[in-house]
């Protein structure tokens, strides 16, 4: 399968959206934790894992999008 420019832009946009939305989520989660919000440990662990996995997905999508964009310039 060959990625076209529109695919590359979509992949980069989704990666940017993941970073933006889960960056905001991480900031809010840290703010809640540092203010002393009482939650079970599983809550903090589960949400932290969710954030890390989504940042990893954003990195993979961003990498694919960037490679596809560079390949289409040639």
Question: Please, could you describe this protein's structure?
Answer:
The protein has 74 residues and is mostly helical. It has one domain. It has two helices and no strands. Helix 1 runs antiparallel to helix 2 (41-73). The longest helix has 33 residues, at 41-73.
Topology of this structure?
Layout: H1 5-34, H2 41-73
Keywords: Membrane, Transmembrane, Transmembrane helix
Transmembrane segments: 45-66
Pfam families: SCO4848
Q: What's the short version?
A:
This protein has two helices and no strands. It has 74 residues and is an all-alpha fold. Keywords: Membrane, Transmembrane, Transmembrane helix.
Share of β-strand residues: under 5%
Helix content: over 70%
What Rg do the Cα atoms give?
Answer: 16 Å
Q: First CA to last CA: what distance?
A: 17 Å
* Class based on secondary structure composition and strand pairing: mainly alpha
Mean pLDDT: 95
User: Into how many domains do the coordinates divide?
Assistant: 1
What quaternary form is this? single chain
SS element count, helices: 2
Instruction: Give the total of beta strands.
Output: 0
Name the helix and strand elements from N-terminus to C-terminus, one letter apiece. HH
Sum up the overall morphology in one term: elongated
Largest sheet: none
- Contiguous low-pLDDT stretches (5 residues minimum) are none
